[in-house]
Amino acid sequence: MPMPLTPPAIEDVSVLARYPFLPQSSEFIREQLSSNGITVEGLIEEPWLEDVRRRGSLRLVEAVTHKDGIDAATTIDISSDIGRMTEALSFLHAMLIVCASFEDRLLTRWVEGEASRADQLFGMDGKNFDIIARTYLSDIRSEPVPGTTEVTYHVPLVDYLELCPKITGRYWRLVNRPVKAGWVRMDPDVGESSRQRTARLLKERVRTSLTADCASRIAKMDDAFASLFADPVDRILGLLSESVQAEMPMSAAVREDWPPCFESAVAELSQGINVNHTGRVFLAAMSRAMGHTPEVTISFFANAPDYSADTTTYQVNHIYERKYTPHGCAALKTGARCPVSFGDDRLCDQEWMTHPLKYLRAKQRRRYQEENQAEIQADESTAGTSQNRPIDVAESNELDDSS
Ligand code: SF4
To answer: Where are the domains of the chain?
Structure first.
Protein backbone atom coordinates (compact mmCIF):
# COMPACT_ATOMS: atom_id res chain seq x y z
CA MET A 1 0.00 0.00 0.00
CA PRO A 2 1.77 3.19 -1.13
CA MET A 3 1.23 6.59 0.46
CA PRO A 4 -2.26 8.02 -0.15
CA LEU A 5 -2.54 9.51 -3.64
CA THR A 6 -4.31 12.59 -2.32
CA PRO A 7 -3.01 13.65 1.07
CA PRO A 8 -5.38 15.56 3.36
CA ALA A 9 -5.19 19.36 3.06
CA ILE A 10 -3.22 21.17 5.77
CA GLU A 11 -4.18 24.83 6.28
CA ASP A 12 -1.88 25.62 9.22
CA VAL A 13 1.26 27.17 7.69
CA SER A 14 3.24 26.52 10.89
CA VAL A 15 2.70 22.79 10.34
CA LEU A 16 3.88 23.09 6.72
CA ALA A 17 7.01 24.93 7.88
CA ARG A 18 7.75 22.54 10.72
CA TYR A 19 7.45 19.53 8.38
CA PRO A 20 8.73 20.81 5.00
CA PHE A 21 9.11 17.25 3.67
CA LEU A 22 5.32 16.69 3.73
CA PRO A 23 3.81 16.47 0.23
CA GLN A 24 1.42 19.26 1.29
CA SER A 25 4.42 21.56 1.93
CA SER A 26 5.57 21.70 -1.70
CA GLU A 27 3.21 24.52 -2.60
CA PHE A 28 4.10 26.38 0.61
CA ILE A 29 7.82 26.25 -0.25
CA ARG A 30 7.14 27.47 -3.78
CA GLU A 31 5.15 30.38 -2.37
CA GLN A 32 7.98 31.24 0.04
CA LEU A 33 10.36 31.51 -2.91
CA SER A 34 8.08 33.45 -5.23
CA SER A 35 6.48 35.81 -2.71
CA ASN A 36 9.92 36.78 -1.35
CA GLY A 37 11.46 37.07 -4.82
CA ILE A 38 14.10 34.44 -4.00
CA THR A 39 16.06 32.75 -6.80
CA VAL A 40 18.38 29.81 -6.39
CA GLU A 41 21.38 32.16 -6.61
CA GLY A 42 19.73 34.26 -3.93
CA LEU A 43 19.39 31.23 -1.72
CA ILE A 44 23.13 30.71 -2.07
CA GLU A 45 24.42 34.29 -2.02
CA GLU A 46 21.94 36.88 -0.68
CA PRO A 47 23.23 38.29 2.63
CA TRP A 48 19.70 38.54 4.07
CA LEU A 49 19.27 34.76 3.64
CA GLU A 50 22.28 33.94 5.83
CA ASP A 51 20.01 32.50 8.55
CA VAL A 52 18.43 30.16 6.00
CA ARG A 53 21.84 28.87 4.91
CA ARG A 54 23.06 28.58 8.51
CA ARG A 55 20.00 26.56 9.51
CA GLY A 56 20.30 24.43 6.34
CA SER A 57 23.98 23.75 7.10
CA LEU A 58 23.09 22.85 10.67
CA ARG A 59 20.54 20.31 9.43
CA LEU A 60 23.23 18.79 7.21
CA VAL A 61 25.99 18.83 9.81
CA GLU A 62 23.73 17.20 12.38
CA ALA A 63 22.74 14.51 9.89
CA VAL A 64 26.39 13.79 9.15
CA THR A 65 27.76 13.89 12.68
CA HIS A 66 24.89 12.82 14.93
CA LYS A 67 24.33 9.10 15.03
CA ASP A 68 20.80 9.71 16.33
CA GLY A 69 19.84 12.05 13.50
CA ILE A 70 18.95 15.72 13.45
CA ASP A 71 18.16 17.42 16.73
CA ALA A 72 14.41 17.91 16.93
CA ALA A 73 14.86 21.10 18.92
CA THR A 74 15.00 24.30 16.89
CA THR A 75 15.46 27.89 17.92
CA ILE A 76 13.49 29.08 14.88
CA ASP A 77 10.20 30.76 15.82
CA ILE A 78 7.72 29.34 13.31
CA SER A 79 4.90 31.53 14.60
CA SER A 80 6.42 34.39 12.56
CA ASP A 81 6.54 34.76 8.76
CA ILE A 82 10.34 35.01 8.72
CA GLY A 83 10.67 31.99 11.02
CA ARG A 84 8.45 29.87 8.78
CA MET A 85 10.35 30.98 5.69
CA THR A 86 13.70 30.19 7.35
CA GLU A 87 12.60 26.72 8.44
CA ALA A 88 11.09 25.77 5.08
CA LEU A 89 13.87 27.16 2.88
CA SER A 90 16.64 25.78 5.09
CA PHE A 91 15.23 22.34 4.33
CA LEU A 92 15.24 23.10 0.59
CA HIS A 93 18.78 24.49 0.78
CA ALA A 94 20.05 21.38 2.58
CA MET A 95 18.25 19.09 0.14
CA LEU A 96 19.71 20.84 -2.92
CA ILE A 97 23.24 20.56 -1.46
CA VAL A 98 22.71 16.85 -0.82
CA CYS A 99 21.42 16.31 -4.37
CA ALA A 100 24.23 18.37 -5.92
CA SER A 101 26.82 16.23 -4.10
CA PHE A 102 25.83 13.01 -5.94
CA GLU A 103 27.23 11.22 -2.92
CA ASP A 104 25.11 8.26 -1.84
CA ARG A 105 26.53 8.20 1.66
CA LEU A 106 25.68 11.84 2.30
CA LEU A 107 22.20 11.33 0.85
CA THR A 108 21.58 8.31 3.08
CA ARG A 109 22.75 10.11 6.20
CA TRP A 110 20.75 13.24 5.53
CA VAL A 111 17.57 11.32 4.76
CA GLU A 112 18.05 9.25 7.90
CA GLY A 113 18.60 12.42 9.95
CA GLU A 114 15.47 14.11 8.60
CA ALA A 115 13.39 10.95 9.03
CA SER A 116 14.58 10.52 12.63
CA ARG A 117 13.77 14.13 13.37
CA ALA A 118 10.31 13.63 11.88
CA ASP A 119 9.86 10.55 14.07
CA GLN A 120 10.65 12.59 17.22
CA LEU A 121 8.49 15.57 16.26
CA PHE A 122 5.50 13.46 15.17
CA GLY A 123 5.60 11.57 18.46
CA MET A 124 5.30 14.86 20.39
CA ASP A 125 2.67 16.46 18.17
CA GLY A 126 -0.68 15.34 19.57
CA LYS A 127 -2.50 18.24 17.92
CA ASN A 128 -1.50 17.43 14.34
CA PHE A 129 -0.72 13.74 14.57
CA ASP A 130 -3.94 12.54 12.97
CA ILE A 131 -3.58 14.55 9.78
CA ILE A 132 0.12 13.71 9.51
CA ALA A 133 -0.63 10.01 9.92
CA ARG A 134 -3.30 10.23 7.20
CA THR A 135 -0.65 11.73 4.92
CA TYR A 136 1.56 8.66 5.22
CA LEU A 137 -0.92 5.84 5.96
CA SER A 138 -4.05 4.77 4.15
CA ASP A 139 -6.04 5.43 7.36
CA ILE A 140 -5.73 5.63 11.16
CA ARG A 141 -8.06 5.22 14.14
CA SER A 142 -7.69 6.14 17.77
CA GLU A 143 -9.51 5.28 20.97
CA PRO A 144 -9.15 7.05 24.33
CA VAL A 145 -7.39 5.27 27.16
CA PRO A 146 -9.86 5.35 30.08
CA GLY A 147 -8.82 7.59 32.96
CA THR A 148 -6.00 9.28 31.01
CA THR A 149 -5.55 11.93 28.33
CA GLU A 150 -3.77 9.36 26.12
CA VAL A 151 -5.14 7.54 23.09
CA THR A 152 -4.32 4.19 21.54
CA TYR A 153 -3.82 4.18 17.78
CA HIS A 154 -4.78 1.46 15.31
CA VAL A 155 -3.24 1.31 11.84
CA PRO A 156 -4.44 -0.65 8.78
CA LEU A 157 -2.92 -4.11 8.53
CA VAL A 158 -1.98 -3.51 4.89
CA ASP A 159 0.27 -0.55 5.86
CA TYR A 160 1.70 -2.36 8.86
CA LEU A 161 2.66 -5.43 6.82
CA GLU A 162 4.67 -3.28 4.42
CA LEU A 163 6.43 -1.20 7.06
CA CYS A 164 7.12 -3.51 10.02
CA PRO A 165 9.77 -5.71 8.30
CA LYS A 166 11.97 -2.60 8.09
CA ILE A 167 12.00 -2.18 11.88
CA THR A 168 13.86 -4.48 14.26
CA GLY A 169 12.63 -5.58 17.70
CA ARG A 170 10.09 -8.04 19.02
CA TYR A 171 7.38 -5.36 19.26
CA TRP A 172 7.19 -5.08 15.48
CA ARG A 173 6.66 -8.75 14.70
CA LEU A 174 3.06 -9.18 13.70
CA VAL A 175 2.54 -12.11 16.10
CA ASN A 176 3.21 -9.68 18.97
CA ARG A 177 0.61 -7.11 17.87
CA PRO A 178 -3.11 -7.45 18.50
CA VAL A 179 -4.96 -7.46 15.16
CA LYS A 180 -8.71 -7.12 14.80
CA ALA A 181 -10.78 -6.79 11.60
CA GLY A 182 -7.79 -5.59 9.55
CA TRP A 183 -6.51 -3.10 12.16
CA VAL A 184 -3.26 -3.38 14.15
CA ARG A 185 -3.26 -1.98 17.68
CA MET A 186 -0.22 0.14 18.49
CA ASP A 187 0.21 -0.33 22.24
CA PRO A 188 2.65 1.76 24.27
CA ASP A 189 5.97 -0.01 24.86
CA VAL A 190 9.55 0.55 26.01
CA GLY A 191 8.67 3.91 27.54
CA GLU A 192 7.01 5.18 24.36
CA SER A 193 3.37 6.13 23.98
CA SER A 194 1.08 4.68 21.31
CA ARG A 195 1.62 7.87 19.29
CA GLN A 196 5.41 7.55 19.48
CA ARG A 197 5.22 3.90 18.38
CA THR A 198 3.02 4.86 15.43
CA ALA A 199 5.39 7.73 14.57
CA ARG A 200 8.13 5.12 14.19
CA LEU A 201 6.08 3.54 11.41
CA LEU A 202 5.60 6.92 9.71
CA LYS A 203 9.38 7.43 9.79
CA GLU A 204 9.73 4.59 7.29
CA ARG A 205 7.43 6.35 4.84
CA VAL A 206 9.24 9.69 5.32
CA ARG A 207 12.54 7.96 4.56
CA THR A 208 11.20 6.30 1.42
CA SER A 209 9.55 9.41 0.01
CA LEU A 210 12.57 11.65 0.74
CA THR A 211 14.92 9.19 -0.95
CA ALA A 212 12.67 9.03 -4.02
CA ASP A 213 12.44 12.82 -4.07
CA CYS A 214 16.21 13.21 -4.03
CA ALA A 215 16.68 10.58 -6.77
CA SER A 216 14.18 12.42 -8.94
CA ARG A 217 15.92 15.77 -8.39
CA ILE A 218 19.38 14.34 -9.10
CA ALA A 219 18.12 12.90 -12.38
CA LYS A 220 17.00 16.38 -13.46
CA MET A 221 19.97 18.42 -12.23
CA ASP A 222 22.18 19.76 -14.97
CA ASP A 223 25.85 20.58 -14.55
CA ALA A 224 25.39 24.35 -14.33
CA PHE A 225 22.72 24.06 -11.64
CA ALA A 226 24.74 21.58 -9.57
CA SER A 227 27.85 23.75 -9.82
CA LEU A 228 26.04 26.57 -7.99
CA PHE A 229 26.33 24.45 -4.85
CA ALA A 230 30.00 23.48 -5.33
CA ASP A 231 31.29 25.30 -2.22
CA PRO A 232 28.75 24.01 0.32
CA VAL A 233 28.99 20.53 -1.25
CA ASP A 234 32.75 20.45 -0.76
CA ARG A 235 32.43 21.66 2.83
CA ILE A 236 29.90 19.00 3.80
CA LEU A 237 31.74 16.24 1.94
CA GLY A 238 34.92 17.20 3.80
CA LEU A 239 33.04 16.87 7.07
CA LEU A 240 31.50 13.58 5.97
CA SER A 241 34.93 12.27 5.02
CA GLU A 242 36.29 13.07 8.50
CA SER A 243 33.21 11.68 10.19
CA VAL A 244 33.29 8.31 8.49
CA GLN A 245 37.03 7.73 8.67
CA ALA A 246 36.59 5.49 11.69
CA GLU A 247 33.90 3.48 9.89
CA MET A 248 35.22 3.14 6.37
CA PRO A 249 37.33 5.39 4.13
CA MET A 250 35.39 7.48 1.62
CA SER A 251 35.56 5.91 -1.79
CA ALA A 252 37.95 7.98 -3.85
CA ALA A 253 36.94 9.17 -7.29
CA VAL A 254 37.45 6.68 -10.11
CA ARG A 255 40.13 7.64 -12.58
CA GLU A 256 37.73 8.32 -15.47
CA ASP A 257 36.27 11.15 -13.37
CA TRP A 258 39.58 12.94 -12.81
CA PRO A 259 39.84 16.43 -14.31
CA PRO A 260 42.56 16.79 -16.97
CA CYS A 261 44.66 19.07 -14.74
CA PHE A 262 44.84 16.42 -12.02
CA GLU A 263 45.35 13.57 -14.49
CA SER A 264 48.24 15.40 -16.19
CA ALA A 265 49.97 16.23 -12.89
CA VAL A 266 49.80 12.58 -11.79
CA ALA A 267 50.87 11.29 -15.23
CA GLU A 268 53.82 13.70 -15.53
CA LEU A 269 55.15 12.87 -12.08
CA SER A 270 54.81 9.13 -12.71
CA GLN A 271 56.90 9.56 -15.88
CA GLY A 272 59.59 11.40 -13.93
CA ILE A 273 58.72 14.78 -15.45
CA ASN A 274 59.18 17.73 -13.14
CA VAL A 275 55.93 19.43 -12.05
CA ASN A 276 56.10 23.00 -10.80
CA HIS A 277 55.22 24.15 -7.29
CA THR A 278 51.65 25.14 -8.24
CA GLY A 279 51.09 21.70 -9.76
CA ARG A 280 52.46 19.84 -6.74
CA VAL A 281 50.44 21.76 -4.17
CA PHE A 282 47.35 21.41 -6.37
CA LEU A 283 47.91 17.68 -6.77
CA ALA A 284 48.13 17.08 -3.00
CA ALA A 285 45.19 19.36 -2.10
CA MET A 286 43.01 17.98 -4.88
CA SER A 287 43.88 14.41 -3.96
CA ARG A 288 42.77 15.11 -0.38
CA ALA A 289 39.53 16.69 -1.58
CA MET A 290 38.88 13.66 -3.77
CA GLY A 291 39.02 11.32 -0.78
CA HIS A 292 42.47 9.77 -1.25
CA THR A 293 44.42 8.82 1.86
CA PRO A 294 47.75 10.63 2.52
CA GLU A 295 49.54 7.38 1.58
CA VAL A 296 47.91 7.34 -1.86
CA THR A 297 48.76 11.01 -2.37
CA ILE A 298 52.39 10.46 -1.35
CA SER A 299 52.61 7.58 -3.84
CA PHE A 300 51.80 10.00 -6.70
CA PHE A 301 55.16 11.70 -6.04
CA ALA A 302 57.27 8.53 -5.88
CA ASN A 303 58.75 8.95 -9.40
CA ALA A 304 59.36 12.70 -9.16
CA PRO A 305 62.94 13.53 -10.23
CA ASP A 306 63.71 15.06 -6.84
CA TYR A 307 61.64 12.62 -4.72
CA SER A 308 62.45 12.41 -1.02
CA ALA A 309 60.16 10.21 1.07
CA ASP A 310 60.61 12.30 4.25
CA THR A 311 60.10 15.67 2.56
CA THR A 312 57.08 14.50 0.55
CA THR A 313 55.46 12.89 3.60
CA TYR A 314 55.98 16.06 5.64
CA GLN A 315 54.57 18.34 2.93
CA VAL A 316 51.59 16.13 2.10
CA ASN A 317 50.70 15.72 5.78
CA HIS A 318 50.94 19.50 6.18
CA ILE A 319 48.42 19.97 3.34
CA TYR A 320 46.07 17.37 4.85
CA GLU A 321 46.30 18.87 8.37
CA ARG A 322 45.70 22.42 7.12
CA LYS A 323 42.95 21.20 4.74
CA TYR A 324 44.27 23.20 1.80
CA THR A 325 41.62 24.07 -0.79
CA PRO A 326 42.73 23.01 -4.30
CA HIS A 327 43.52 25.79 -6.79
CA GLY A 328 40.69 26.92 -9.08
CA CYS A 329 40.88 26.91 -12.88
CA ALA A 330 42.03 30.53 -13.11
CA ALA A 331 45.00 29.94 -10.79
CA LEU A 332 45.90 26.72 -12.59
CA LYS A 333 45.84 28.44 -15.97
CA THR A 334 48.05 31.24 -14.59
CA GLY A 335 50.38 28.65 -13.09
CA ALA A 336 50.61 26.75 -16.40
CA ARG A 337 48.88 23.73 -14.89
CA CYS A 338 45.75 23.62 -17.07
CA PRO A 339 46.55 21.27 -19.96
CA VAL A 340 43.43 21.86 -22.09
CA SER A 341 42.73 24.32 -24.88
CA PHE A 342 39.28 25.29 -26.08
CA GLY A 343 37.69 22.31 -27.83
CA ASP A 344 39.79 19.65 -26.04
CA ASP A 345 37.23 18.85 -23.35
CA ARG A 346 33.59 19.98 -23.50
CA LEU A 347 33.28 20.14 -19.72
CA CYS A 348 36.27 22.43 -19.39
CA ASP A 349 34.77 24.69 -22.08
CA GLN A 350 31.65 25.39 -19.99
CA GLU A 351 31.27 28.93 -18.71
CA TRP A 352 30.56 27.68 -15.18
CA MET A 353 33.69 25.54 -15.06
CA THR A 354 35.75 27.48 -12.55
CA HIS A 355 37.13 24.69 -10.39
CA PRO A 356 38.43 21.15 -10.97
CA LEU A 357 36.12 19.91 -8.19
CA LYS A 358 33.17 21.05 -10.31
CA TYR A 359 34.57 18.95 -13.13
CA LEU A 360 34.83 15.95 -10.81
CA ARG A 361 31.27 16.38 -9.49
CA ALA A 362 29.88 16.74 -13.01
CA LYS A 363 31.55 13.50 -14.07
CA GLN A 364 30.35 11.73 -10.92
CA ARG A 365 26.83 13.02 -11.47
CA ARG A 366 26.76 11.68 -15.03
CA ARG A 367 27.94 8.29 -13.88
CA TYR A 368 25.41 8.32 -11.03
CA GLN A 369 22.61 9.15 -13.44
CA GLU A 370 23.60 6.39 -15.85
CA GLU A 371 23.83 3.82 -13.06
CA ASN A 372 20.57 4.83 -11.43
CA GLN A 373 18.39 5.62 -14.42
CA ALA A 374 16.41 2.38 -14.28
CA GLU A 375 15.88 2.70 -10.54
CA ILE A 376 14.71 6.32 -10.83
CA GLN A 377 12.20 5.46 -13.55
CA ALA A 378 10.82 2.68 -11.37
CA ASP A 379 10.50 5.10 -8.43
CA GLU A 380 8.72 7.70 -10.53
CA SER A 381 6.24 5.14 -11.79
CA THR A 382 5.01 4.47 -8.24
CA ALA A 383 2.01 6.68 -7.69
CA GLY A 384 2.63 7.26 -3.98
CA THR A 385 6.08 8.75 -4.24
CA SER A 386 5.28 11.02 -7.17
CA GLN A 387 3.03 12.99 -4.85
CA ASN A 388 5.87 14.11 -2.65
CA ARG A 389 7.82 16.70 -4.59
CA PRO A 390 8.37 19.82 -2.44
CA ILE A 391 9.87 21.80 -5.34
CA ASP A 392 10.95 20.60 -8.71
CA VAL A 393 14.51 21.29 -9.79
CA ALA A 394 13.23 22.32 -13.20
CA GLU A 395 11.06 24.87 -11.43
CA SER A 396 14.10 25.98 -9.45
CA ASN A 397 15.93 26.48 -12.73
CA GLU A 398 13.04 28.52 -14.07
CA LEU A 399 13.26 30.74 -11.01
CA ASP A 400 16.95 30.90 -11.65
CA ASP A 401 16.45 32.05 -15.23
CA SER A 402 13.99 34.75 -14.27
CA SER A 403 16.48 36.51 -12.00
S1 SF4 B 1 39.62 24.00 -17.24
FE2 SF4 B 1 39.78 23.75 -15.03
S3 SF4 B 1 39.10 21.64 -14.66
FE4 SF4 B 1 39.55 21.77 -16.84
S5 SF4 B 1 41.69 21.07 -16.95
FE6 SF4 B 1 41.73 23.31 -16.83
S7 SF4 B 1 41.99 23.72 -14.67
FE8 SF4 B 1 41.32 21.59 -14.85
So the answer is: 13-124+205-222+377-401, 129-204, 234-372
